[in-house]
Design a protein that fits this description.
The protein is built from eight helices and 14 strands. It is α+β, with helices and mostly antiparallel strands and 330 residues long. Strands 1, 4, 5, 6, 7, 8, 9 and 14 form an eight-stranded mixed beta sheet that branches. Strands 11-12-10-13 form a four-stranded antiparallel beta sheet. The chain has a two-stranded antiparallel sheet with strand order 2-3. Bound molecules: ligand 2P0.
Amino acid sequence: MIITKATAIANSNTALVKYWGKQDEQLIIPMNNSISLTVDSLSTITTVDFSESYDEDLFILNKKIQSDTPKKRVQKHLDIIRNIANVELNANVVSENNFPTAAGLASSASGFAALTAAASSALGLNMNPKELSMLSRRGSGSSCRSFYSGFVEWIKSDDNNESYAIQLADENWFDIRDLVIVFKKHNRKYTTREAMKISKKTSPLYDARLEIVEDNLVKVRKAIKERDFSLLGQTAEADCLLMHSIALTSNPSQLFWTAETLGMIKFVQELREGGLESYYTIDTGTNMHILTKPEFSDEICAILRKIPYITNIIECKPGPGVQIIKDDLF
Ligand code: 2P0
């Protein structure tokens, strides 16, 4: 019997040096290398089954049938994988996040990594992590970094076959904490994908950032190699501010912060002044990350729990890369 069903689990990753803009919108090749931390507590499990008995593709996320853009993005990605495997079978895709999607936590990195691994395994493609990472990149750029555990770098390249992720250090090398702070959801006018496109086209600071990012990459690689938490945190925070400066100076301006975000920026500065060394990094959702040392985590979480505008705190450690698992979701 030919088995066309497989299940994968993938974790999300937190960008320490950000990906912000593409040199190729179709192939999803970035303008700059980026470095991330794969985390252990934000994961997606996805089962994909290809069969002649399915009349069309079906995508169920967190028990809800998906349509429109989420379904189209999954179908487009399945088409790339079907094309490589030379099959025309429809698929049932069932996906579960272990974190509430309504909490505003991005799931495209863990989601596309799990989808790529499960679909390619279901079709018997036997790809190595480098090939999987390149394939996953086509669905969502940041997902290519989730194939490896720990600290990961996504190489830009000018060539479709050379833009993939590599591991800088595994999850046991350098123990840090990433406290994911979730605020109340607010609506954004542009998706992250649209926002980075607008930034590249219109921000007068965009090209200047590309030069500074090269320095940040050198510093973060050094920080990981030498387990230098201060250098890691300082550089991640500086790189975050750089990305948001680009976004803010775009036309139309892209502001991803709320009053709560500013409150937390001040809070992290105060933590540092009080001797609990920590740094922040912010992406485009209604959440932010506090990077800290393991020994400070409990104390910081206890203070955070008293802040009324925080709806959730998820403590993350460095985590594993994508794995194929036996427990199918259907
Ligand atoms: C990152 N972000 O490096 C940056 C920082 C958001 C801010 O990668 O268009 O969902 O699917 O390639 O991967 C989010 O972008 O964008 C992201 P696409 P993706 O993590």
